[in-house]
Design brief:
8 strands; four-stranded antiparallel beta sheet; alpha+beta; elongated; Jelly Rolls; 8 helices; single chain
Length: 189
């Protein structure tokens, strides 16, 4: 729980009583590889903080192809925040790509924290802005680079992920086929 506390305190000041209150609203869950944290077609039920493991955000395009658009690893929040807050049906899947351990907040508990702690919304807004900026920063270079450069950029920015997740997910994230990724990997060795 220290990881969660340290993460939150980067974005605002809280006293020990407020921290204890937030921590009292968490539940620890485990996801097995391939389990869903949130599913398209369902209303997201929780916000999570990843203690161990990696999840991916993905969807199916109009051709039925699975597209991975980003990964989230340890010491980060994970949620379909917009749909969670509005309590509307999600369009993305959030899937564990490794076994995961998370601290989760239910909608009721998340709202209770927001209604109890003055300044909580400002903290969570900064957290969400940070998550969005990280996502944009990770995706932006991928648009203009060739496949080999995209892969090299991926392994440079995510050295801890490259050996932990399926190559099919990496290929999907990079917007290439798994065969193309295999050729690229073979050529750069």
């Amino acid at each position: 729980m220290k990881e969660l506390t340290n993460y939150i305190l980067q974005f605002g000041n809280l006293n020990q009583q407020q921290i204890d209150f937030i921590l009292s609203k968490t539940t620890e869950i485990n996801l097995r590889k391939d389990d869903y944290f949130s599913e398209a077609g369902k209303i997201p039920k929780q916000v999570g903080f990843i203690l161990e493991g990696v999840v991916r955000f993905c969807y199916y395009n109009n051709k039925g192809q699975e597209i991975t658009h980003h990964f989230v690893d340890e010491k980060n929040f994970v949620s379909d925040q917009q749909n969670f807050e509005a309590q509307i049906v999600a369009t993305d899947y959030i899937e564990a790509v490794t076994d995961c351990k998370l601290l989760v907040f239910s909608k009721k508990d998340w709202d209770e924290i927001g209604n109890t702690i003055v300044g909580w919304h400002a903290i969570t807004n900064l957290i969400m802005k940070n998550c969005l900026l990280k996502t944009i920063e990770r995706r932006s270079p991928l648009v203009s680079e060739d496949a080999t450069t995209r892969y090299l950029t991926f392994i440079e920015k995510f050295p801890a992920l490259v050996n932990r997740i399926s190559l099919s997910y990496v290929a999907s994230y990079l917007g290439i086929t798994q065969q193309s990724l295999s050729r690229i990997r073979k050529n750069i060795r």
